[in-house]
Amino acid sequence: LRIAVLASGRGSNLQVIVDAIAAGTLDARVVGVFSDRSKAGALERARDAGIPAFTLRPRDFDDRATFDNVLFSQVEAVQPDLIVCAGYMRLLSPHVVEARPGRMINIHPSLLPAFKGLHTHQQALDAGVSRHGASVHFVTAELDGGPVIAQAEVPVMEDDDAATLAARVLTREHPLLRATVEAIAARRVGWQDGHATWEDQP
Ligand code: GRF
Question: Where in the numbering of this chain does the Formyl transferase N-terminal domain appear (predicted)?
Answer without folding.
Answer: 2-178
